[in-house]
Each structure stands twice: as structure tokens, then as C-alpha cells.
């Protein structure tokens, strides 16, 4: 068999991702009206799929090549199979001023003209090799209209009852129908082996509690659990005007979740997956009426002083426990972030959270709350700054004793 086209572009290995791979795609896309074929030794399936929209793709297995123009990457061995009359070009895809790149210098042949992709990289190549058979052709690129992409979001545990299997079935159905989508699932790493990740359009987002900003970017919120009392994530999505895809649950009607209005009801046995997937192409628009929770009727209305409390400083006094335990751990030390073991009775200031932690462990007793504006008036106060002036002496180690057994 002879591979015969007017223009041949050869890259030995076309990977799933990379700059050279993008160059090949952009070249054949822009010049799709020309007789171009891509020849390679190895190619990632996804690259082959998108290249074949515009040109023929051949796996080279020692076939002869007949063409008018051949453009190669750094591997020029393919030229041994090409007719002599063809114009031969090799693209310089890198800046050879970087010493690590010099290993990839193409082998020179007098019938090759070298293509620099920038003036600077072309000049570096000329200076290093002494070759002046060079021309400039910049990387081709034409902006193509983006296909609309459906953005899905879930934030859930992927336990058995939540059933990632249903989610995978829906993802595969969307893909089968040719619907362009990406599905972000916020969850913990304990579900890293769940089957849902088998679909390449599904992306794991490390667990986070603030999913609101993600909801603003989504078209649908998906939760295919069959056991919910009153899902917070569904409520948040609906309050934000984000339609939901859910398995129907008994409480939906009482809070205003309606199929076709603000939700799509997915059957737990997957029998309506295609119907739902097609409906998802047009996200629902709606207004959701918030429902009163009722706790305002049963909670005591005494005013909270929590905000003032967390802004306060607290004077604490060391118990003997620091000495007993010989605690010099940075996290528990009297001076946060430093190694210091206070003596019983020493006092210093701490914030709200640190006070609670040290009291819980029995390391300190609280003496009083301190208004920071009056710190200079506090009697017998050793502030953190004062503690730092104290010479830190390591505690003597206890001798280990062994008893002879007679």
C-alpha cells in the first residue's frame, strides 16, 4: 500500500495532550480544504477522533509515501519512505537555548528546510546548528465556536444508599446521546473507587462546604439518592434558582418540588434515563418560594453575645499539668507556635478558641476576661510579649531505672 496525498504531516507519537498535538489539529482544521493527511506511529484515541473530522489519519507500518509536501516533527526517519521529489520540511517546535532540549535536535539532511515557529527560536536553532535553510511559519490558530456545554453539580456522599451507580448510568446516557457535559461532584476521598469516576466527563472536586459559588456556574444540580428527609443541598439549589434532577421522594410535594417546573424526576431503576438526559438540554427557569422553618417559634430569644466573646482576650493561669506532662508541643505550648513549658501559676493572654482548648485539657484555669483596650492596667499580667523575654530552660529528663529480677 502507498499513502498518497498532496500534503503529509508526520508526527511519530501523538499523545492525548500536548502542544504539538494541538498544532497538528489546528493545522488540519484551518487547511481542511487542502488535501492533507496525518501519518503517525502511535496516536491517542481522542486525538485520532478529532483529527478524522478534517483529514485521513494513517498508522505508518513501513508503507511508501507519495506526496508533494511533507512536514515532519523532530523525527525525520519517515523521509526514507518518501518520494524524492517531495518538498521536505521539519518544524522546530522548541527553543533549543535550553540545554535539556538539545537532545531532541532533528538529524540534519540537506534536502530539509527547517520551519521556526517564532523568530527567536528560529535564530537560536540557526546559531546552534549553523543551518540557514530556515523559514518562519507561526503556529496556525483559528478560534472556533464553542459547543455549548452542560454543567452539572453534585455535593454528596457516594455511599450505597446515595448510589453512584445511578449517577454513572445517567452520565453514560448523556454521553451516548452526544450531549456535551461536565459533571462536578464534590465529595471526600473515601469514595475515590466509586464507579462514577469511570465516565471521563465526571470530575472529582475535593470536599468543600461552600458549594454556593459552584451552584452559580451550574445548569443542573443532580442528587439521585432514594433516602432523604429534607435535603439541604436540594434546598440551597432551589433557593438559588438552580433546577434539580432527583429521584422522587415523599416530602417533595409539601415543599414545592415539582416535576417539570423546578425539577426532573429520575426513576431509580434508570428506565427514563434517556428522557431525562434529553430534557436536561434545556435547563428549567423558575422562582422558588422559601418556606419558614418554624424554629423561630420554639427557640428562646435571649440575645447572643458570641460575637463579643470571640473578640475578647482571656487571662489564664497554668495548672501543674504542663510540668507533669512536660508539654513542649508547639500546638499546646503557652506561646502558640513556640516551645515553652510554663510553671504552675504563670499567667498569659489567649484568645477564645485557645482558651477552650487549654481548659478542656486541664492545662489552665481562666482568671478573667480582658478588654484589650485596658491591657496596660491589668495587674500581674504577663502578656505573650513578656513571656518571650523569659529564659526557656529545658526540663531535666527523668532517669530511667530498671529493677533486677532475682
Concise overview:
Helices cover 23% and strands 21% of the residues.
Write out the CATH superfamily name of the largest domain. Answer: Glycogen Phosphorylase B
The neighbouring-strand order within the major sheet is: 6-4-2-8-9-10-11
Q: What is the count of DSSP helices, taking H or I runs of 4+ residues?
A: 12
Radius of gyration: 35 Å
Biggest sheet statistics:
7 strands, parallel
Q: Tally the beta strands.
A: 20
Stretches with pLDDT under 50, minimum 5 residues: 376-406
CATH fold annotation of the largest domain: Rossmann fold
Shape: flat
Percent of sequence in beta strands: 15-25%
Q: What is the helical fraction, as a range of percent?
A: 10-25%
Distance between the termini: 93 Å
Throw out a few tags for this protein:
Rossmann fold; alpha/beta; 406 residues; 3 domains; six-stranded parallel sheet; disordered C terminus; flat; 23% helix; 20 strands; seven-stranded parallel sheet
Q: Which helices and strands, and how do they pair?
A:
Blueprint lengths: L1 E3 L2 E4 L2 E2 L4 H12 L5 E5 L1 E2 L1 H7 L4 E4 L4 E3 L2 E4 L14 E6 L19 E5 L2 H11 L4 E3 L13 E6 L8 H13 L4 E7 L14 E5 L5 H6 L2 E4 L8 H8 L4 E3 L5 H4 L7 E3 L7 H7 L26 H6 L1 E6 L2 H5 L21 E4 L1 H9 L3 E7 L13 H6 L17
Helix pairs in contact: 4-8
Amino acid at each position: 500500500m502507498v499513502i498518497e496525498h498532496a500534503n503529509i504531516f508526520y508526527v511519530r507519537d501523538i499523545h492525548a495532550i500536548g502542544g504539538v498535538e494541538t498544532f497538528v489539529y489546528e493545522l488540519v482544521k484551518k487547511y481542511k480544504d487542502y488535501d492533507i493527511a496525518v501519518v503517525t506511529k502511535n496516536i491517542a484515541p481522542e486525538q485520532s477522533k478529532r483529527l478524522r473530522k478534517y483529514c485521513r489519519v494513517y498508522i505508518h507500518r513501513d508503507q511508501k509515501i507519495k506526496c508533494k509536501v511533507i512536514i515532519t516533527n523532530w523525527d525525520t526517519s519517515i523521509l526514507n519512505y518518501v518520494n524524492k521529489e517531495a518538498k521536505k520540511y521539519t518544524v522546530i517546535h522548541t527553543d533549543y537555548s535550553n540545554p535539556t532540549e538539545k537532545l531532541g535536535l532533528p538529524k540534519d539532511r540537506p534536502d530539509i528546510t527547517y520551519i521556526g515557529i517564532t523568530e527567536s527560536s528560529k535564530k537560536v536553532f540557526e546559531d546552534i546548528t549553523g543551518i540557514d535553510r530556515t523559514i518562519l511559519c507561526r503556529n496556525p490558530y483559528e478560534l472556533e465556536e464553542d459547543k455549548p456545554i452542560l454543567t452539572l453539580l453534585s455535593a454528596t456522599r457516594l455511599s450505597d444508599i446515595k448510589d453512584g451507580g445511578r449517577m454513572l448510568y445517567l452520565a453514560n446516557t448523556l454521553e451516548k446521546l452526544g450531549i456535551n457535559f461536565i459533571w462536578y461532584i464534590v465529595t471526600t476521598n473515601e469514595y475515590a473507587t466509586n464507579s462514577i469516576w469511570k465516565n471521563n466527563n465526571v470530575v472529582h472536586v475535593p470536599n468543600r462546604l461552600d458549594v454556593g459559588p459552584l451552584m452559580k456556574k451550574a445548569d443542573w444540580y443532580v442528587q439521585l439518592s432514594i433516602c432523604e428527609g429534607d435535603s439541604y443541598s436540594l434546598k440551597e439549589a432551589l433557593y438559588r434558582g438552580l433546577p434539580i434532577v432527583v429521584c422522587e421522594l415523599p416530602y417533595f410535594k409539601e415543599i414545592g418540588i415539582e416535576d417539570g417546573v423546578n425539577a426532573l424526576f429520575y426513576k431509580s431503576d434508570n428506565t427514563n434515563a434517556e428522557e431525562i438526559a434529553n430534557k436536561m438540554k434545556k435547563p428549567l427557569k423558575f422562582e422558588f418560594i422559601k418556606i419558614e422553618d418554624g424554629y423561630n417559634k420554639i427557640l428562646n430569644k435571649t440575645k447572643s453575645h458570641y460575637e463579643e466573646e470571640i473578640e475578647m482576650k482571656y487571662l489564664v493561669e497554668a495548672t501543674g499539668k504542663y510540668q507533669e506532662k512536660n508539654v513542649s508541643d508547639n500546638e499546646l505550648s503557652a506561646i502558640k507556635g513556640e516551645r515553652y513549658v510554663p510553671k504552675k501559676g504563670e499567667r498569659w493572654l489567649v484568645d477564645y478558641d485557645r482558651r477552650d482548648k487549654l481548659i478542656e485539657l486541664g492545662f489552665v484555669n481562666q482568671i478573667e476576661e480582658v478588654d484589650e483596650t485596658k491591657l496596660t492596667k491589668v495587674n500581674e499580667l504577663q502578656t505573650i510579649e513578656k513571656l518571650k523575654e523569659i529564659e526557656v530552660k529545658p526540663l531535666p529528663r527523668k532517669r530511667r531505672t530498671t529493677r533486677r529480677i532475682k
